Amino acid sequence: MSGKVIVIGGGITGSAVAYDLSLRGMKVVLLERGSIGSGTSGRTHGLLHSGCRYIKDPQVAAECYRENMILRKIAPFLFETNGGLFVAITDEDMEYRERFLNGCEKSGVPVKEIRREEALKLEPNLNENLKAAIVVPDGTFDPLKVILSFLASAKARGAEIRPFNEVVGFVKEGDSVVGVKVWDKISEREYILKADIIVNATGAWGGKVGKLAGITVPVKPAPGVMVSLDERLVDMVINRLNPPSDGDIILSHRSTSVIGTTSWYIDDPDEVE
Ligand SMILES: Cc1cc2nc3c(=O)[nH]c(=O)nc-3n(C[C@H](O)[C@H](O)[C@H](O)COP(=O)(O)OP(=O)(O)OC[C@H]3O[C@@H](n4cnc5c(N)ncnc54)[C@H](O)[C@@H]3O)c2cc1C
Hints:
- The chain has a 7-stranded mixed sheet with strand order 6-7-5-15-16-17-14. The chain has a 4-stranded parallel sheet with strand order 9-2-1-13. A 3-stranded antiparallel sheet has the order 3-8-4.
- The N and C termini lie far apart (44 Å).
- The longest helix is centred in the first third of the chain and has 17 residues, at 58-74.
- It folds into 2 domains: 4-42 and 144-212, FAD/NAD(P)-binding domain (3-Layer(bba) Sandwich), CATH 3.50.50; 82-139 and 222-271, D-Amino Acid Oxidase, Chain A, domain 2 (2-Layer Sandwich).
- It is an alpha+beta fold and 273 residues long.
- The chain has 6 helices and 17 strands.
- Helices cover 27% and strands 29% of the residues.
- It has helices spanning 12-23, 58-74, 91-107, 116-122, 143-156, 206-212, and strands at residues 4-8, 27-31, 47-48, 79-80, 84-88, 112-114, 132-136, 139-141, 160-162, 165-173, 176-184, 189-194, 197-200, 227-229, 237-240, 249-253, 256-260.
- The radius of gyration is 21 Å and the shape is elongated.
- It binds flavin-adenine dinucleotide.
- Flavin-adenine dinucleotide binds at residues 8-14, 31-34, 38-41, 44-47, 49, 166-167, 201-205, 209, 223-224, 226, 260-261.
């Protein structure tokens, strides 16, 4: 492959795309309107999902598990692979147990049910009245480390990374987008950059950026709130054995723990209240 690519967005998607395309011999320029990782990626829970949370859709769960395995393989130093536990505390949780195990099997995600005593040995802070515990291949990561690693590797292959460079418009020839108008916030000047391929990797802002090119990108931005505690309470990712809902996961990053997340839909990611 050859040619010039502009990647808009310096989050996890843009940085991974920049890395992948530079590996394939493309000349990549990545444009980010703020600092690297300043969008959603710099504020995630940092959970390397096993796919078990998504078993409602076995295809999504299977893809999630495959991606999990690829990331562990290509960058083992970026992930804490202590695994995860889905834990049942209530009768309602227990009602979900069979559906969960069947869903994991259908999705090809390897899981293992363990005894209560074993679970408490692994995670002494669990509720000692737990009714079931299932080990899953979850992990954790520091999002900024992942993004910066992808970008450093892309840069080593010739990619150019431009933070504080916001795409404010597109250059079109007929129906084709052939370039972008960029506002450089550091030198305070506008410039035009052309490329063979332009990738919109702006996540929650994808709809707004698409609009600049006259394209409809159906995006439903969903922010969330997490609570951080100044103590490492668990080593594994602890999930409630229940269909996904608010505040049902706790995991640790270094010496802190984070409980999350909530989720609701908004129209404009720049107007989160
Ligand atoms: C509360 C919460 C917790 C989450 N926890 C997890 C988790 O534990 N594990 C997990 O896998 N996923 C998690 N997610 C989802 C995950 O964070 C996102 O799927 C992911 O970060 C999206 O990455 P992205 O690169 O697509 O978008 P972003 O990280 O948002 O990157 C897009 C970038 O585009 C930039 N941009 C926007 N407009 C322009 C423009 N005009 N010009 C230039 N740049 C522009 C933005 O500044 C931004 O940096 C969570 C999401 C939320 C909300």
